[in-house]
């Protein structure tokens, strides 16, 4: 698949823990290689904002999303509806060209990311999930890192880059020294 023309802004939804973030790195690097001038926004948790700030890599910024039922909160959780609505308005104002869903099978995350209003939505889809514009089936026994690369390839980002995926920063070294 070829790269999509005129892509300036990309959103990637993956509000998980550190190991889950690492699984997404090959796909994030593939997106950076395919769209070197695009601004990549990682939609995640508060720890992502601190961790990714001033860190070299494929992500330009981390956007902290509020807990949403089925995405960072239990599916029956009571959440701050006003903060979710404000977040969604902010995402719509971004006018993303591409929005990637890398958070599970999409039962909750696909309708959520579709509300961003991106030109094209891309991700995974379980049998009971709403489809995105471009998607791959979720649930097959497969290496997640490779599966996310396949999702990125749906937008023409099929370059596998070998080399460091996560750079250690001076801040990381100071924190380790402080702990030790």
Describe this structure in words.
The chain is α/β, with parallel strands linked by helices. It has six helices and eight strands, in the order βαβαβββαβαββαα. α4 (109-114) links the parallel β6 (98-101) and β7. The termini are far apart. The model has no long low-confidence stretch (mean pLDDT 93).
Low-confidence residue ranges: none
Helix content: 25-40%
Based on CA atoms alone, the radius of gyration comes out at 16 Å
State the end-to-end distance.
48 Å
Structural class: alpha/beta
Sheet of most strands: 6 strands, parallel
Q: Note the total helix count.
A: 6
Which strand order spans the largest sheet, edge to edge or round the barrel? 3-2-1-6-7-8
The H/E string reads EHEHEEEHEHEEHH
Mean pLDDT: 93
- Total strand count, please? 8
């Amino acid at each position: 698949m070829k790269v999509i023309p005129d892509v300036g802004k990309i959103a990637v939804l993956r509000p998980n823990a550190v190991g889950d973030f690492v699984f997404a790195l090959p796909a994030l690097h593939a997106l950076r290689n395919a769209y070197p001038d695009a601004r990549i926004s990682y939609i995640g948790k508060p720890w992502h904002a601190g961790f990714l700030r001033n860190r070299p890599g494929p992500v330009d910024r981390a956007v902290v999303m509020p807990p949403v039922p089925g995405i960072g909160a239990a599916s029956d959780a009571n959440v701050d509806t006003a903060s979710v609505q404000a977040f969604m308005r902010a995402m719509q104002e971004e006018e993303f060209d591409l929005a990637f869903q890398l958070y599970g099978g999409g039962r909750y995350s696909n309708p959520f990311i579709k509300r961003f209003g991106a030109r094209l939505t891309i991700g995974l889809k379980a049998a009971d999930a709403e489809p995105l514009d471009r998607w791959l089936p979720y649930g097959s026994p497969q290496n997640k890192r490779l599966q996310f690369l396949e999702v990125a390839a749906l937008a023409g980002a099929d370059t596998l880059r070998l080399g460091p995926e996560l750079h250690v920063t001076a801040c990381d070294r100071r924190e380790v020294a402080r702990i030790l």
